Amino acid sequence: MAPKVDPSEVKITTGGEVGASSALAPKIGPLVGEDIAKATADWKGLRVTVQLTIQNRQAAVSVVPSASSLVIRALKEPPRDRKKEKNIKHSGNLTLAEIIDIAQIMRTRSYAKDLKGTVKEILGTANSVGCTVDGQSPKDLSDSIESGEVERIASKTIYISNVSYSSTEQGLEELGSRFGKVESVRMPRDYEGRSRGYGFIEFSQEEEAIRALDELNGIEFEGRELRVAEARGGAANGNGGGMGMSRPRSRGYDDE
After folding, report:
1. Distances (CA, A) of 209 to 161, 177, 181, 191
2. E strand residue ranges, 95-195
3. What pLDDT, on the 0 to 100 scale, is given for residue 30?
4. CA-CA distance, 161 to 104, in Å (whole number)?
5. SS3 breakdown of the chain: % helix, strand, coil, rounded to 5?
6. Confidence at residue 41, expressed as pLDDT on a 0 to 100 scale
7. Residue 207 in 3-state DSSP?
8. Compositional bias of type Gly residues: which residue ranges (predicted)?
9. Where are the alpha helices (DSSP H) in 114-146?
10. Distance of CA 198 to the CA centre of its chain
11. At 25, which helix (H) or strand (E)?
12. Which helix H or strand E contains 169, and what residues bound it?
């Protein structure tokens, strides 16, 4: 009798590795391990949750990163071999804007009532990871942060989805510069270096972000019709638009 298959298996695996999925191979085909390794390659060395949606012995892989995985990946540290290194220490510094980006991604899995609360949750994760934020202890920053500071940064930032997978930060910066001075462009990428289909443009002034929001939504850019929202709305209210990750209503802060 063929083994029973759960059509929505959920597993914890280490990004870029095959081993954690080997027990599934007899059920859904010998290449499932390679599929998981490929889908999680840009999370190499990090513990992430993967969901396998199985149909006709084919598995579609969705990655559901925890807040700690997002924080560690944002540090851009070289991959570590978890089999050789135990109790891995993390250091480095993130900006508050990067913390807000992560909070927006995690917003739909947060128990906080507003974005400020989710930012404080992510600062708590950063404190546990061991990095600094804007050169400060995340705990000290969390104690002193006010809603106005979060809103000030978020109000100058727009969230753009349905971006071409071949788009670059330079392309988005040139697009945003039509409306004012661009402070930064943040575009998450997959293991092949391609855009994940969304990004953030931070302007120097709120008025510039408002103009960009009004004029960019729905325009065609590199063959795709852009969808634009206020970043302070929480990553377009949770509609990932190409994020490449599913979003169950589970908290997911301590998976790493």
Report:
1. 15, 10, 10, 30
2. 132-133, 157-161, 182-186
3. 56
4. 13
5. 40, 20, 40
6. 74
7. helix
8. 235-244
9. 115-129, 138-144
10. 10
11. helix 25-28
12. helix 169-176
